[in-house]
Amino acid sequence: MAGKLTAPILLVGTPIHQADLAYATRFSAPDPVVFFRKGRHAFLVVNRMEIARARKTVDQITVFSPEDLHLKPEERHRYAGWAMGLLRKLRIRKVRVASDFPLGVAHYLETNGCRVVLDESPLFPERSVKSVREIRSITFAQQAAVAGLAAAEKAIRTARADRRGILILDRKPLTSERVRKLIHTALLDFDCVGTETIVAGGRSSADPHQVGHGPLHTGEPIVIDIFPRHIPSGYWGDITRTMWHGTPSPTLIRMYDAVRAAQLTVLHQVRPGVRTRTLHQEAVRVLAEHGFVTRTVNGRAEGFIHGTGHGVGLEIHEAPALGGGSDRLKTGQVITVEPGLYYPNIGGVRIEDTVQVTRKGCKILAEYPYFRATSSRK
Known about the structure:
By secondary structure, the chain is an alpha+beta fold. The protein folds into 2 domains: 9-123, Creatinase/prolidase N-terminal domain (Creatine Amidinohydrolase, Chain A, domain 1); 128-377, Creatine Amidinohydrolase. It is built from 8 helices and 25 strands. The protein has helices at 19-25, 51-57, 79-90, 103-111, 132-158, 176-188, 250-269, 276-289; strands at residues 9-13, 33-38, 41-45, 62-64, 94-98, 115-119, 160-161, 167-169, 172-173, 192-193, 198-201, 222-226, 229-230, 239-243, 295-297, 300-302, 309-311, 318-322, 334-337, 340-343, 347-350, 353-357, 362-364, 371-373, 376-377. β2 and β3 form a beta hairpin. α3 (79-90) crosses α4 and α7 (250-269) packs antiparallel against α8 (276-289).
């Protein structure tokens, strides 16, 4: 499975789970399909139930069913067989595949005389620059995320704290689970779905990907990270705010102000041509100037422990990454800007917006206020 990366592209998988397939075909299906492209010519194999819909949906792609390929009996109900049948029909002897290509399919192809070339680089690097239609879909998902934030904020603001500091809403503890359900309900009104939505309160918010569980408490940080997927288009949004009920500690306020300053600095520097690592270094610099230096304590990293952002599209995390890489931003890319600080004994603060890289800077796709406390915004 090695060789020069000049062969045509082969994809085998499920479009709703594989971004490259969704991008290449613009076809959504719950079952696996086979896609092949050589130059300007593209082909798609779908099961018999999907053939009519696929031919109406896809553009400039020749669509086959397995029955069109004159498969061997043992190939008719195997996706490896579909792929081999298509390549046999087109007289193709070598294909290029991505690093996550199914091993069983690759083995079957090579056993039957087709050379499989592994390409570690993106098969569709053009995915990182979004079209007007793609940006519209991401913006819609981002607007859904904003609606989710509003639902969460309303619940937190409306709640009262009992003598133990636990937030109470409608005579019941306000938990991460309750707030998450409110967010997911709001997303559904936009034909969006939320998965692993983060509502992490107190010390659990010091883990950037901790979804959060149990009662929320007054005076503690509540990191809310919403990344909905727009069901009709498959595109994602991503937004984070840190809010709290009551009066936060002076340390928490300092953390919040430092993170917001870092985010503003990076947002002002986003433009075509800037290196992604430069943006990350700027976030690190601003946080350090505010007294927050990343370090390891008792074997655990604390401070700014992740990258400054990532691309958003058919995947929630895609190119470009705003970290240590040397990529340069391009007009039309959609990225997040999300510095954060995390301390096990305090909790975390993260602020995130999704922006479009424009010719002269960037545009926030859906705005939402920034908080210093639940009783005030700035």
